[in-house]
Automatic annotation (TrEMBL):
Gene3D superfamilies found in the cross-reference section: 3.30.530.20
Pfam families the record matches: Polyketide_cyc
Every Coenzyme Q-binding protein COQ10 START domain range: 10-133
Protein name (record): Coenzyme Q-binding protein COQ10 START domain-containing protein
Lineage start: Bacteria, Bacillati, Cyanobacteriota, Cyanophyceae, Synechococcales
């Protein structure tokens, strides 16, 4: 089993970063233009039982990838998806959102196994790690830009809502 982790700090509240991930089209937003992937469906949001299905292209060959969200779920703090069908022997992706003052640390943790055992993991694993680094750098940059560009409006709307609630 291989492990990959990447994190970034986003200058936005955790609630806004979580809200970004709740959007219906978030998977399309987070898919890099160079990656030959189609989002087939997304059902159930981020909670347990939610399903995301993708079609990856390996040259002319389509590969179905289905990820199901498990019980490792705390709204606003973390969610986790596991590949139930796809190209990996095993794949577990944990998304963690932690407060750092007024900012949010977004952490992507992936544990995966390649088909074929230890030899592909030793020989191909470093290549997969490099591809994951590029993928998650892109995804975290998209998340950061979206959240930071909406931060002030989000904070203002929360102040207004909280102010109205105190009346």
């Amino acid at each position: 089993m291989r492990r990959f982790q990447r994190s970034t700090v986003i200058d936005a509240p955790r609630e806004l970063v979580w809200a970004f991930h709740e959007q219906a089209d978030v998977l399309e937003q987070l898919t890099p233009p160079w990656l030959p992937v189609e989002v087939v469906r997304r059902e159930g949001g981020l909670g347990p039982g939610a399903v995301s299905e993708f079609r990856l292209w390996l040259g002319p060959v389509p590969i179905r990838w289905v990820a199901t969200h498990n019980d490792d779920y705390e709204p606003g703090r973390c969610f986790c998806d596991r590949q139930s069908q796809g190209p990996f022997a095993d794949w577990l992706h944990r998304h963690i959102f932690s407060r750092e003052g007024d900012r949010t640390r977004l952490i992507d943790e992936v544990e995966y196994a390649l088909p074929g055992g230890w030899l592909p993991e030793l020989s191909v694993g470093p290549v997969v790690d490099a591809q994951l680094e590029r993928l998650f750098a892109y995804r975290q940059q998209v998340t950061k830009q979206w959240c930071e560009s909406r931060r002030d409006a989000f904070l203002q709307s929360n102040r207004t809502t909280k102010g109205l609630q105190s009346l």
